[in-house]
């Protein structure tokens, strides 16, 4: 949620080129008839007072799926691979709790967390990374033996 004018202007600056590209694509579209059909469907199914909200929602979803989300690893952090993910109903809070309790690490030493279907990546401060690996690698979590090691590529 955007809380102040600075955040709004920064988001606006980031989105403005993308919006202009979308508008250019619409105006240069060779098959404008198909766009007209979608416009009619849009007008028929979306009430007038909700059209701008739906447009904003679709823009957010479209840009979220097309732009590659890059997690930048901060200086002094290492990226760890953990062999559990969404399919095991693991959430970032679960990983934070697991690491902080079992390895006695403060939450401040835990960075970005990326959870995929079958595995996860988590950034940990360099000083604590070896301790996390030694404690968690081979331990059991929800009936599964964990494999924890350094990620081949930093996330």
Task: Describe the protein's architecture and organization.
The protein has 155 residues and is α+β, with helices and mostly antiparallel strands. It has two domains: 62 residues, no CATH class; 74 residues, RRM (RNA recognition motif) domain (Alpha-Beta Plaits, 2-Layer Sandwich), CATH 3.30.70.330. Helices cover 48% and strands 16% of the residues. The chain contains five helices and six strands. The strands form two sheets. The chain has a four-stranded antiparallel β-sheet with strand order 2-3-1-6. A two-stranded antiparallel sheet has the order 4-5. The chain is elongated. The model has no long low-confidence stretch (mean pLDDT 84).
Q: What is the 3D shape? A: elongated
- Rounded to an integer in angstroms, the radius of gyration calculated over CA atoms is 22 Å
Largest sheet: 4 strands, antiparallel
User: How many structurally independent domains?
Assistant: 2
Q: Provide the CATH architecture of the largest domain.
A: 2-Layer Sandwich
SSE order: HHHEHEEHEEE
| CATH homologous superfamily grouping of the largest domain | RRM (RNA recognition motif) domain
Percent helix: 40-55%
Rounded mean pLDDT is: 84
Q: How many angstroms does the end-to-end distance come to?
A: 25 Å
CATH class bucket of the largest domain: Alpha Beta
Number of distinct helices: 5
Uncertain spans: none
Q: Looking across the biggest beta sheet, what order are the strands in? A: 2-3-1-6
Strand content: 15-25%
Let me know the number of strands: 6
According to CATH, the fold-level topology of the largest domain is Alpha-Beta Plaits
Query: What structural class do the secondary elements suggest?
Result: alpha+beta
